Amino acid sequence: MAERIDGKQVAADVRAKVGEAVKTLPGQPTLAVVLVGEDPASQVYVRNKVRQTEEAGMRSLHHHLPVDASQDEVEALISRLNGDDEVDGILLQLPLPKGLDEQRAIECIAPAKDVDGLTEASAGRLVLGKDGLRPCTPTGCVILAKSVLGDDLSGKNVVVIGRSILVGKPAALLFLAENCTVTIAHSRTKDLAALCRTADILVPAVGRPEMVKGDWVKPGAVLIDVGINRIDAPEKGEGKTRLVGDADFGDCEKVAGHITPVPGGVGPMTIACLLRNTVIAACYRRGWALPSGL
Ligand SMILES: Nc1nc(=O)c2c([nH]1)NC[C@@H]1CN(c3ccc(C(=O)N[C@@H](CCC(=O)O)C(=O)O)cc3)C=[N+]21
């Protein structure tokens, strides 16, 4: 039976380290969160980000634009935050309301303040192997893998299922930077189950509920499940839903050595890594030494 990787606990550890690091800095890092519109899920995420930022001893500024804000208004706000010397990190909460161009808006964020690691500059630096701000969810996956395998992941076979800009591609690059042997699988991959069985670390990130079955998993492998899917749960009552990952947990936990649950796995790591990036951005930008132990 696989051991559960407690993402909530690992995320709390990362946030505690961030909090300790913040105390050693000559000033207080500031994260600006930009929310456009009234999407209830986004409002919950933003509230959690603001609370956890403050708990880690950092300042957070919350900017809320109406759902009918224009592209120019969003970009003008980002430009203002770019020019505000108090602001170290800018988080533009995604998705934006329909009609707004997400990629163009992200590209307005000054690379030095890109705590989501989503600008072309940040992506380019990751590909080139230069230091920089890394995407949060993929960073969380690497930290979770290290939490059970130790800091040295070199030589591990990693299979990432999914090639999205947000998770799959950057996750593959981050594991490559850890000297893993990385394969990116996707919808055209042949014999996906057999490929997955070669993985020491399996990272499904496609958004298909319970797609990965137990017989896709190498005995003893580490399964880092990025999927967060809401599905109907009639067993809980009429109209009820529940969250499941991209892996069939009950099936995979019989084979894997370690497995992340959903919820309580990768999700909490995303926010913890955002806080970590805010410290890193503040240090780079203000010329402070990066605290050790981050
Ligand atoms: N610019 C931007 N950056 C993001 O990083 C970003 C974003 N926009 N938009 C939305 C997505 C989603 N996201 C999550 C963060 C935490 C959990 C999380 O902690 N989930 C809990 C459970 C949540 C629940 O119960 O609904 C868990 O998995 O245990 C999930 C999802 C960050 N996102």
Automatic annotation (TrEMBL):
Its EC number is 1.5.1.5, 3.5.4.9. Pfam families: THF_DHG_CYH, THF_DHG_CYH_C. NADP(+) binds at G162, R163, S164, I228. GO terms for molecular function: methenyltetrahydrofolate cyclohydrolase activity; methylenetetrahydrofolate dehydrogenase (NADP+) activity. Residues 135-283 form the Tetrahydrofolate dehydrogenase/cyclohydrolase NAD(P)-binding domain. Residues 5-116 form the Tetrahydrofolate dehydrogenase/cyclohydrolase catalytic domain. Pathway: One-carbon metabolism; tetrahydrofolate interconversion. Transmembrane segments: none annotated. One of its GO terms (cellular component) is cytosol. GO terms for biological process: L-histidine biosynthetic process; methionine biosynthetic process; purine nucleotide biosynthetic process; tetrahydrofolate interconversion. Keywords: Amino-acid biosynthesis, Histidine biosynthesis, Hydrolase, Methionine biosynthesis, Multifunctional enzyme, NADP, One-carbon metabolism, Oxidoreductase, Purine biosynthesis. It catalyses: (6R)-5,10-methylene-5,6,7,8-tetrahydrofolate + NADP(+) = (6R)-5,10-methenyltetrahydrofolate + NADPH; (6R)-5,10-methenyltetrahydrofolate + H2O = (6R)-10-formyltetrahydrofolate + H(+). Catalyzes the oxidation of 5,10-methylenetetrahydrofolate to 5,10-methenyltetrahydrofolate and then the hydrolysis of 5,10-methenyltetrahydrofolate to 10-formyltetrahydrofolate. Belongs to the tetrahydrofolate dehydrogenase/cyclohydrolase family. Homodimer. This is Bifunctional protein FolD. The gene is folD.
